[in-house]
Amino acid sequence: MTEAGRERAALCAEFERVGPGVPTLCGGRTSGELLAHLLVRERRYLVSLLGIPMPSVVGSAELRMARLPWLEMIELLRAGSGGWLPGRRPTDGMEFLRLYVHHEDIRRARLGWAPRPPEVYRDDTLWHGARTLGRLAYQRSPVGVGLRRPDGACWPVRPGPRPVTVSGQPGELVVHMCRRPRVRVELAGPPSDVNAALAARPGTLFGGFAATRSPAAPGHTTGYDEG
């Protein structure tokens, strides 16, 4: 099984554990709304593409999906994309990053959250994906941006003057780039350049941060926290 397959199974188990009504960090959605969002993204893919020009169409599709029984929705997510691409299988690319971030959307919305313990292959896969995601997240930054993990490895993801360095565990870097409000990273550079790099990140990666409402039960973090 790939890391994407393992992450999908873990996310489904998380949905089973928390139920449909808990807050998440994904655009202010509850866990039930997040699951409906994921299912529309995977099983109504053409509809989901209308999300930017016609958000009401996607909203209606998610409302209809949310009327399904909770456990049936979880089984649909566990089964995967539903075959809209023949022969498609879980990959360790963007699909894995998307599932990982949404799993963290649930985990980090509760009191006392903590980063997951290190796991070599998962973290290496996250680190590899962070290179591609970083180029997308910081493509409009007016200053250079580099990612650094604790072992000293670096990815320069945005060339430019006065480079800012974002340091942290690979999973923290991925969540940070998706503009989620609870993350543990360190930022190095002049404050004005750091702020410019942070502001350049899009607010729509994997469900979006721009519309995020404050969760009902705010969590506690140490280190950098955008919330």
Helix/strand/pairing class, anyone?
A: alpha+beta
Through-space gap between termini = 35 Å
User: Based on CA inertia axes, which overall geometry fits?
Assistant: globular
Output the strand order for the largest sheet.
Answer: 2-1-3-4
Helix content: 40-55%
Strand residue percentage: 5-15%
Order of helices and strands: HHHHHHHEEEHEH
Report the biggest beta sheet as strand number plus sense, adding barrel if it closes: 4 strands, mixed
Rounded radius of gyration (Å): 17 Å
- The unreliable regions are 83-90, 209-227
Number of strands: 4
- Mean of residue pLDDT values: 85
Explain how this protein is built.
The protein has a 4-stranded mixed sheet with strand order 2-1-3-4. It has 9 helices and 4 strands. The termini are far apart. With 227 residues, the chain is an alpha+beta fold. Helix 1 (3-18) packs antiparallel against helix 5 (70-79) and helix 2 (31-43) crosses helix 4.
